[in-house]
Design goal:
8-stranded mixed β-sheet, globular, VOC_core, alpha+beta, Extradiol_RC_dioxygenase, Glyas_Bleomycin-R_OHBP_Dase, 2,3-Dihydroxybiphenyl 1,2-Dioxygenase, domain 1, VOC family protein, 331 residues
Length: 331
């Protein structure tokens, strides 16, 4: 098997929720991420697909959601991405605790993990999320969006995802093939399964970590769960090489699928987690000016011909605007 170019890390994470308006308000106004694309689920065009990221939608920063209305709450278990963590600047967790108190967000006690401080919380749909304080390098590629949250605290892309797996071994081998190297192990808190957390690290600056924990209790897809995690294969050639490497391990990757803002390959890894390989381009600014990202409903490809029908089927939503919270950025 030819070794493919290693992935730099996470490209995006796609989740499931049940309240489109509440999802927009929390991820834009409370967490301060930018709505970089407002579109539809290309496999279910009667459902929105929201993309939240940094100011420019940099690869490695976008959290995306399928908001199916009235969807029941899911449960996190084996064979799932159990936690999604974001980077925030060192010293900013105090700001976030005060902000969560002001907005009524329930959060947990701070956790020390691999020498970093972690603040766990849930979004309104029940999704487990974490903020991790990190020292940002001077050449960090992310661009903070400061409409609602000051630059000193703004979320700066992904830190990691945590996988709960019934049998971690084959998946750990897969991560090695993808370019992740074992970073270390440590014990786990009482509220998570297993006795040991193993961390794997990619070479990029954003979304570089995957944590693996053994877990046997099954989860259930629903609101508050992750649909899939996408890893960066920056070019088509990188993606093709990774696809062949994955296939040679006995997995069944799809053919490349054009997702308009990137090109994708999907497969379920050995424990059942849905993985995606995603190219860097064309990017979210390929069909909207950078200053207008998320400003309109974008219907890729042939869906534009069905705009009236699609718009009539989608629920009305209001996008939070920065002017309503301008004063908070001066705190």
């Amino acid at each position: 098997m030819t070794t493919p170019p290693p992935t730099p890390g996470i490209h995006h994470v796609t989740c499931v929720t049940n309240d489109p308006q509440g999802n927009l308000e929390f991820w834009i106004e409370t967490l301060g991420l930018r709505l970089v694309k407002r579109s539809i689920n290309q496999d279910d065009p009667g459902t929105y697909h929201f993309f939240f990221g940094d100011a420019e939608g940099t690869p490695g920063t976008s959290m995306t959601f399928f908001p199916w209305e009235d969807l029941s709450r899911g449960s996190v278990g084996s064979g799932q991405v159990a936690r999604t963590a974001f980077r925030v600047p060192e010293g900013s967790l105090g700001y976030w605790e005060e902000r969560f108190d002001r907005y009524g967000v329930e959060y947990g006690e701070r956790i020390e993990r691999f020498g970093e401080t972690v603040l766990p919380f849930e979004d309104p749909g029940g999704l487990p999320v974490e903020l991790v304080e990190v020292e940002l390098p001077e050449d960090d590629p992310t661009v903070p969006w400061t409409a609602f949250v000051p630059e000193t605290a703004a979320i700066r892309g992904f830190h990691s995802v945590t996988l709960w797996l019934g049998d971690p071994g084959p998946t750990e081998d897969l991560l090695g093939t993808m370019g992740f190297e074992e970073h270390g192990t440590e014990g786990v808190a009482e509220d998570v399964p297993g006795e040991e957390r193993t961390r794997f690290a990619a070479g990029g600056p954003v979304g570089k970590y995957v944590d693996v924990l053994p877990a046997v209790e099954a989860g259930r897809q629903g609101s508050g769960t992750v649909h899939h995690v996408a890893f960066r294969t920056p070019t088509d050639a990188d993606q093709d090489a990774m696809r062949e490497a994955v296939r040679s391990m006995g997995l069944r990757p799809t053919e490349q699928i054009d997702r308009h803002w990137f090109r994708s390959v999907y497969f379920r890894e050995f424990a059942g987690v849905l993985f995606e390989l995603a190219t860097n381009g064309p990017g979210y600014a390929s069909d909207e000016p950078p200053e207008d990202l998320g400003g309109r409903l974008v219907l890729p490809g042939e869906f534009e011909e069905q705009r009236e029908q699609i718009e009539n089927a989608l629920p009305d939503v209001t996008i939070p605007r920065a002017e309503s919270a301008r004063a908070e950025t001066d705190d």
